[in-house]
């Protein structure tokens, strides 16, 4: 009798039974036209997903990624608002949510309901009430730091309520020490260099770009947990979809007339280009 194989089979069976029991687990969404096999990662609607910033300075990128996921999950339905529960200290440290920035990601700012709470306990209390409302397009929960109240019990309670109401919820915070939680997926996000903007606009900015790592996926293929996988993605707000970020072109170092191409300086520049580094800037004009 293969004990390891039997345990694995039992885990798969329990995962399938749990998926059948939870109303929101049967409905999934993807990243869009990005990631493995064109968005092969499937995320459950009516579940709690965690997005961590790789570093404190990366929280704006993680915020944009959360909003994009919320729109993918169903927040693009203009009839339903997105509720954002935010701790006051997050606003003091990072600033207010910017209406033009929200619009550039594809969300009409008038659809956003912002709830501010003085501490993490109040954030979780407000989120626990909000997640019961099936009329929400999505719920974003943003405590600050590593509060003791954000534990396995709290995340399990939110997960069960999200499954009951069908409200896809997102827990947003800076990277924390590993701790047991009941989230369906866990992501770590950092900003990526965006591609060029529209060719007809010389100073146009490229689309928002992210480096996203999937740290944990409880609902993997066959119910097995999945770990690992990092993708460079950009967000298309018009299509409401992620797409794979094309590699940036390498910079070219021009060799002045009269200088042999095999000089030490040229060889150093070629070595830098092989490492993918930017070794020179284009001249204006």
TrEMBL record:
Gene3D superfamilies for this protein: P-loop containing nucleotide triphosphate hydrolases (3.40.50.300)
Name of the protein this chain belongs to: Protein ImuA
